[in-house]
Specification:
Helix 2 (62-74) runs antiparallel to helix 3. This protein has helices at residues 13-28, 62-74, 101-110, 120-129, 165-184, 205-219, 233-236, 242-245, 251-259, and strands spanning 46-52, 81-87, 136-141, 193-198, 223-226. It is built from 9 helices and 5 strands, in the order H-E-H-E-H-H-E-H-E-H-E-H-H-H. It is globular, with a radius of gyration of 19 Å. It has a single domain, classed as von Willebrand factor, type A domain (Rossmann fold). By secondary structure, the protein is an alpha/beta fold. Helix content is 38%, strand content 11%. The protein has a 5-stranded parallel β-sheet with strand order 2-1-3-4-5, with helices on both faces.
């Protein structure tokens, strides 16, 4: 039966969490009314690192972005998923994988963020190389990368003209990221990288979207474009959470999310 929008409903995140908490209590021998014991992040099936663009251009949307990541966490199952958040400019303890997702959500809301540039590639690199090893990388940005990575076999690579040389440098840097995603994955696999471009799509912005789409396509992840005139990041980012992600395999569903039809 072909997939149709509205024909599939994701499992209730509330029911899924309740079942996971009950299982965790049973496994730990805890009494029914005892607090859940969160397992070590390296023992979680899903270990997701989120790259969060806190650059100056995101300033008016930082609140929505925080709420979107918190909603993402609400759609993750405790003791099955561990999450870390890597800000592009702010350095804090949120970069460590944590399985206590409710507390992580509170810490994200309260985080005092620094603004700055968009060191996109280096933040991706740090997230991929961090331990415990991740199983998936999710990144969102509204701007152009302000950094680049040096390919090992191309010491002459540099950023030249903004509209041509820089785009070539982006591609070169993206290839370095893709190489790392293959290198850190077990059994000759690849760490999937989901990317979200959060901004309006002018002619030049298409180059930025092409970069993010390239990273996702080459690693087996998903690319989404959230135009703030159509999509509320606060409600749409949850579709990248594990219990919802399968729906994104449908191109028509992705289109519905990007058009704002799916809240």
């Amino acid at each position: 039966m072909p997939f149709q929008i509205g024909s599939y409903k994701p499992p209730s995140s509330v029911d899924a969490k309740a079942a996971a908490i009950a299982a965790a209590k049973a496994a730990s021998g805890a009494k029914p009314d005892a607090l859940v014991r969160y397992i070590s992040p390296d023992k979680c099936t899903d270990r997701i690192r989120v790259v969060f663009d806190d650059s100056g251009s995101m300033d008016s949307q930082i609140g929505n972005a925080k709420e979107g990541v918190v909603e993402f966490l609400r759609n993750c199952i405790p003791n099955q998923t561990a999450v870390a958040v890597h800000f592009m400019n702010t350095h804090n303890q949120l970069q460590s994988l944590r399985s206590d997702l409710p507390q992580l959500g509170l810490d994200i809301k309260e985080a005092d963020l620094s603004s700055g540039g968009t060191p996109f590639f280096n933040t991706l690199k740090n997230a991929l190389n961090a331990t415990p090893t991740l199983t998936r990388l999710v990144a969102f940005t509204d701007g152009s990368p302000t950094d680049h990575l040096q390919a090992e076999d191309d010491e002459k690579a540099s950023i030249e003209d903004y509209y041509s040389g820089q785009i070539d440098a982006w591609k070169s840097s993206a290839d370095v990221i893709i190489k790392i995603a293959h290198a850190v994955a077990p059994a000759s696999g690849c760490i999937p990288i989901d990317t979200v471009y959060f901004g309006r799509g002018s002619d030049y912005k298409h180059h930025q979207m092409d970069l993010l789409r390239y990273l996702s396509e080459q690693t087996g992840g998903y690319f989404l474009h959230f135009d703030p005139a159509k999509v509320n990041f606060r409600t749409a980012f949850k579709y990248l959470a594990p219990i919802n992600r399968l729906m994104l395999s449908s191109g028509s569903f992705r289109a519905a999310v990007e058009s704002g039809e799916k809240a």
